[in-house]
Specification:
The protein is 44% helix and 5% strand. By secondary structure, it is mostly helical. This is Failed axon connections homolog.
Length: 358
């Protein structure tokens, strides 16, 4: 498998100009966990959802990779003109009211209802199965993706990942899904993913040819299966049998994350049948993976997003979250240069992990 990686995309001149703009009034400050060291923008589906949404509506923003939770204990959250808003749905409602953006304006009342139902299935059900796969069943691989530096980096990674794993298991038990066996959790995951594949069909986006907010929510979650869980059942499903979901993820990545580079070989599962017309990279291209056709109603500024966002380097904190806070506070850092993450160190699996010696 080829690991995705973030490539330097914005020049320091543009970044500095944008940072100056965002330090002024009416700046959107997005608080979220720091970038993983493998290139995926976030291990949190909700952080990835929120940042993708801001790019979809073409709103400039400044990332704070500080790990600081909102007053409600949430992540991600935003600050706008001294107002603080947390919870991804409340943030979207707030931005629609304050700034007049609306990705759902072309949806009928029935389509809005379907969009809401799909969003809640993804965020309240599929989310937990993905979290289980990342933070319980594949904890050691996820631990390698955390961005923690310094002489005690390995020990901190171990502590943070295992603390988060314990919290995920506790929250899953309270939710109810954690009371079932591993096999049952994966069965539920497969049902959710197959449902999404049926809903998407051969459409470009989930509600048709134009984007809506549900696309940001689904992308935030499916991207985890697509690019953070190599060799697992969700990756095998999305890159094999449910290839239309892989096509959707790649379409969103190319349109809204031009600096996030992946190799074409990474679009299909290595164990998939490459002779199948549904699983080959050629088939993906036939469905318009590389199309940048404008999908907003007025087709306004299709490429503006390529210079509307600034990026900060990794901080020493990175955790997964489900719109509930799990981490300590650090001082915010604002810098202009894009990150240059080192590849994670590979280590053999250990069925009974122990904290590394400092």
């Amino acid at each position: 498998m080829h690991s995705p990686r973030l490539m330097p995309f914005y020049t320091s001149e543009v970044t500095a100009e944008k940072e100056q703009e965002l330090d002024s009034k009416d700046a959107i400050i997005l608080h979220q966990f720091s970038r993983p060291n493998t290139g995926v923008p976030s291990l949190s589906p909700f952080c990835l959802k929120m940042e993708t949404y801001l790019r979809m509506v073409d709103l400039p923003y400044q990332n704070y990779f500080d790990g600081k939770l909102s007053p409600q204990g949430k992540m991600p959250w935003i600050e706008y003109n001294r107002q603080q808003v947390s919870g991804s749905e409340f943030i979207i409602d707030f931005l629609e009211e304050k700034l007049g953006v609306n990705l759902n304006k072309n949806l009928s009342p029935q389509e809005r209802a379907v969009s809401w139902a799909v969003t809640k299935m993804v965020e309240e059900h599929l989310y937990w199965t993905i979290a289980y796969c990342q933070w319980v069943d594949n904890l050691e691989e996820t631990q390698k993706m955390l961005s923690v530096t310094g002489p005690l980096g390995d020990m901190l990674k171990w502590i943070l990942s295992h603390l988060n794993s314990s919290m995920v298991q506790r929250e899953m038990y309270g939710h109810g899904i954690g009371r079932f066996s591993k096999e049952d959790v994966y069965k539920l995951m497969e049902k959710d993913m197959r449902t999404l594949a049926e809903l998407l069909g051969d459409k470009k986006y989930f509600m048709g040819p134009k984007m809506s907010t549900v696309d940001a929510a689904v992308f935030g979650h499916l991207a985890q299966a697509m690019w953070t869980l190599p060799g697992t059942q969700p990756e095998q499903l999305i890159k094999g049998e449910l290839v239309n979901l892989a096509m959707f993820c790649e379409r969103m990545r190319r349109k809204f994350w031009p600096e996030w580079f992946v190799d074409i070989e990474d679009l299909c599962y290595d164990g998939a049948d490459t002779d199948s017309s549904e699983g080959s990279p050629t088939c993906l291209m036939d469905f318009g993976l590389f199309s940048r056709t404008d999908t907003m109603e007025e087709s306004e500024a299709s490429d503006k997003h390529t210079h509307s966002h600034t990026h900060s380097p990794n901080t020493d904190h990175s955790l997964f979250d489900s719109d509930v806070g799990t981490c300590s506070e650090n001082e915010p850092q604002l810098k202009c240069d894009p990150p240059s993450p080192d590849p994670p160190n590979s280590a053999p699996s250990n069925p009974s992990p122990k904290p590394p010696n400092p």
